[in-house]
Design brief:
2 domains; about 375 residues; 2-oxoglutarate-dependent dioxygenase activity; about 30% strand; globular; alpha+beta; Double-stranded beta-helix; GBBH-like_N; Gamma-butyrobetaine dioxygenase; NE0471 N-terminal domain-like; six-stranded mixed β-sheet; GBBH-like_N_sf; iron
């Protein structure tokens, strides 16, 4: 609810029921008008361009009616209603957090000692509340398990179908991670893998990865996940200059392991939005190409920061570990969470299948559920 509104030709100042005040420019209000001539009633898409708004747009009247705001724009002589709740959701008048390397609202960073968030296959498939909670965990923590699933090949595709679509790559719709202990072929080794993000040589990278366990009778081979955002926070706090180097200069990544494939990217290991929010991590020693975009006089300091970030990531205190059983899977935000694997010993086999998907599909599904199924959280 709004208490009052004052205006001049260039802006409106409103007071909410709680006593807070906010200002909105005339051009901003006109561009975001909610009337059916400006926004399509069905999907909310804008029907006008910026060029359709008069350059001389101004406000001739602004008043509170039934707790909402009515604004009249000139020279169109057009009156539009803005709900108080909508205005409260879109306030931009105030101090904005510009801390370099800050974490977005709704994201929780973590390290060892955190319980892996988990959902039950049957419940997530059947109940909106369970599905919403599982999707929320992925959005907040960057990873989550799914237990109690079937053990048929390609079951991982049903996981992707919960929220979106498989992103097919040169590896196909999905790929095999089939490793045997005491193998007859070195392709099926039980060697451990350092924590890494997948496919950093792509632009854009696949933003989600799903790994689904079909067999796991081997000793060892635990999965480990590391929060790259928490690692970046630690580097930022311990070595701000090193953080700035890894965020300020592109690294290079490359993959050309098969005929007809030569994937290359030029992106920083720590990626920030233009206003300083931490939005991505790319870290993969196996796919790293020579760094050639860092000035000569800064290269040694860059490598020192790279080493320090790697030491933070490799610290056992950073990792959450678990062993996947047949029918279990986990999903990771590949722009944030690194995954690793311990080596094997003894006898047995380990067969996983993996695929990629896109985070925008997951976030879209979650946002739609939050709008249409608020009871799912209860």
């Amino acid at each position: 609810m709004l208490r009052s509104a004052t205006h001049d030709p260039s802006m409106v100042t409103i007071e909410f029921a709680n006593g807070s005040q906010s200002r909105f420019h005339a051009i901003w209000l006109r561009d975001n008008a909610l009337d059916p001539e400006t926004r399509a009633p069905g999907n909310g898409q804008r029907l006008i361009t910026i060029g359709d708004i008069p350059a001389t747009v101004s406000i001739s009247a602004a008043e509170v009616a039934n707790g909402d705001l009515n604004v009249t724009f000139q020279p169109e002589d057009k009156t539009v209603t803005f709900p108080a709740s909508w205005l409260a959701e879109h306030v931009y008048d105030g101090a904005q957090d510009r801390q370099i390397g800050r974490i977005a609202s709704g994201v929780t960073t973590w390290e060892r000692g955190t319980d892996a968030p988990s959902g039950d296959w049957n419940e997530v498939q059947a109940y909106p509340a369970a599905k919403r909670n599982w999707l929320t965990a992925v959005a907040e923590y960057g990873f989550a398990k799914l237990t109690g699933g079937p053990t048929e090949p390609e079951s991982l595709l049903k996981v992707a179908n919960l929220f979106g679509y498989v992103r097919e790559t040169n590896y196909g719709p999905y790929f095999e991670v089939r490793t045997e202990v005491n193998p007859t072929n070195l392709a099926y080794t039980g060697l451990g893998l350092q924590a890494h993000t997948d496919n950093p040589y792509r632009d854009p990278v696949p933003t989600l990865q799903i790994l689904y366990c079909l067999e796991n009778s081997a000793e060892g081979g635990d999965s480990i996940v590391v929060d790259g955002f928490r690692a970046a926070e630690k580097l930022r706090d311990q070595n701000p200059d090193g953080f700035a180097l890894l965020a300020g200069y592109p690294a290079r990544f490359e993959y050309k392991g098969s005929d007809g494939v030569c994937l290359q990217s030029r992106r920083p290991m720590i990626e920030l939005s233009p206003d300083g929010e931490l939005i991505g991590i790319r870290f993969n020693n196996r796919s790293s190409a020579p760094f050639v975009d860092v000035p000569f006089e800064k290269m040694e300091a860059y490598y020192a920061a790279y080493r320090q970030l790697a030491e933070i990531i490799d610290d056992p205190a950073m990792g959450v570990s678990f062993k996947l059983e047949p029918g279990e899977s986990f999903i990771v935000d590949n722009t944030r969470v690194l995954h690793a694997r311990l080596g094997y010993s003894g006898a047995g086999s380990r067969w996983l299948q993996g695929c990629y998907a896109d985070k925008d599909g997951l976030l879209s599904t979650l946002a739609a559920m939050q709008m249409t199924q608020p009871e799912a959280a209860e």
